[in-house]
Amino acid sequence: MAMNVKPRDEAAIFSHLKSVAAHDAPWRTGKTFAYVYDPGRDVEAIAKRAYMEFLTENALDPTAFPSLLRLENELVAYAATHLNAPEGAAGNFTSGGTESCMLAVKTARDFARAVKPEVKEPEIILPVTAHAAFHKAAHYMGLKKVLVPVDPVTFKADPKLIEAAITPNTIQIVASAVSYAHGVLDPIPEIGEIAQRRGTLFHVDGCIGGFLLPYFERLGEKLAPFDFRVPGVTSMSMDFHKYAYCPKGASVILHRSKDIRRFQIFTCAEYTGYTLINPTILSTKSGGPLAAAWAVINYLGDEGYMRFATRIHEATKKIIAGIKATPGLKLLAEPDTNLVAFTSDEFPVFHVIDEMKKDGWLLQAQLGYMGSRDNVHLSIGQSNLEQVDDFLRDLKSAVARARLIPRSNVIEGLKAEVAKLGPDDMTPATLLRLATMAGIGGKLPERMADLNLALDALPPKLSEMALTEFFNNMYVPRRG
Ligand SMILES: Cc1ncc(COP(=O)(O)O)c(C=O)c1O
Q1: What CATH architecture is 302-403?
Q2: What is the SS3 assignment for 93?
Q3: Alpha carbon separation from 312 to 115, 271, 383 (Å, rounded)
């Protein structure tokens, strides 16, 4: 067969690309509170230029592209200094938070194989607020995850419950600085002490919080140590493509020493091609994200980031005060940073997202799980500051409208059915029955609240099943 594609000219290609983007999130407006970290046009231009200059270079082989090795070692050094890593710390640039977290777990697994060969069924301890990337890591690597509840009021990891979950098979504890869902900082010193005393590795996930936290400290926030200042911390992840405002594909994994980082590296000489030596999951990879991250960090520098952090800090304080002052809304937790979750005791809060969307705002739904109930998430960035007053005004009227939306009998019926389910009912047949009842079909409903309320009512196993099917049907080839 041949490719079913006729060459098009440049104008046609770019006009097509522009038209397909017409319904994307409006991130340049400062009205988007998830997915995009907008540093403004000047930073964007620097990033794009650096990205393009190294677009084609391949970080697969640092001997062929010593430039990339040099840029990576410099970036890792910036991160190590920022997170108070000791002399001798080592790390790598990765494609994102998920890759950094997966590498932290892979390192722990291979470290345990070397130093604790008696462990046959390795376990990692995850507070329920640890990012899903760790679930993915456990899933991909066939490790047992031990989920631990968090404090029901602060949503911070509970050191006592973590210690109680340790078994002879424990190879790693994970905590967050900060958690995505609630923006809270786990008690890293207490958990670090436990990890050290009980002889286990301890990863602090600073993917979303790690870059900003040092600036928030300098802005006067009283925070317990969250990084390598805590002796028990053996590794940390931190994303450049979030609050360091670098283009996507930019994160870092850091280990306390090269003796631990060694276990992150995968080498294969047992095939007929080039010997493969990969410190990261990706093998062939563009030098673009690395060069762009280096460029953005050097363009903004500490001063630029302090400016951004000050704006984020101010926007967050105003938004938190505004939410608290909005009748019917309440914070789910008091955040330590710029990630805010709010909910309502008076009406289904997901309706606020649909109502806000009518005014051009993009907010994120978070489903309930283990004590964390249905809520709306805001990741507040520097580009949101100018919009805060408009946001709070529109939020107030969205809440007023959301209150008037009648409660759905379907959801109440669904909840009643779910209450009758037992562990053996987590099957595609049950899902089909409940989905039919809830009217969940193949395509997205007009109001996402209806879908999110239904998903929120389902047990996690069934909603995972439903969402897998949904994506399986959504990603289908467009032929012809
Ligand atoms: C705390 C935390 N860890 C890990 C990740 C995963 O990062 P990514 O989406 O870059 O893979 C995120 C993403 O938001 C996060 O907030």
Answers
A1: Alpha-Beta Complex (3.90)
A2: strand
A3: 43, 50, 8
pLDDT value for 446: 75
Nearest 5 degrees, angle CA 147-CA 150-CA 153? 160
Token pair 């990890």 in the structure block, residue: 195
d(Cα 156, Cα 19) in Å, to the nearest integer?
A: 44
For ligand 1, mutation pick of 98, 243, 246 (most atoms within 8 Å of CB): 98
Per-residue pLDDT reduced to its tens digit, 377-416: 999 999 999 999 999 999 999 999 999 999 888 888 888 9
DSSP H/E element including 144:
strand 144-148
Which CATH number is correct for 50-295, 3.50.50.60, 3.30.565.10, 3.40.640.10, 3.20.20.70? 3.40.640.10
Work out the angle between the directed axes of helices 428-438 and 460-474 (0-180°, nearest 10).
Answer: 80
Which residues, given as ranges, of the chain have pLDDT below 50? none
Q: Exposed (0-12), middle (13-18) or buried (19+): which is 373, by Cβ within 10 Å? A: middle
Q: Compute, in angstroms, the gap from residue 207 CA to the centroid of ligand 1.
A: 6
Kindly report the protein residue whose alpha carbon is nearest to atom 9 of ligand 1.
97
239 lines ligand 1 (CB under 6 A): yes
Q: Is the peptide bond before 43 cis (omega within 30 degrees of 0)?
A: no
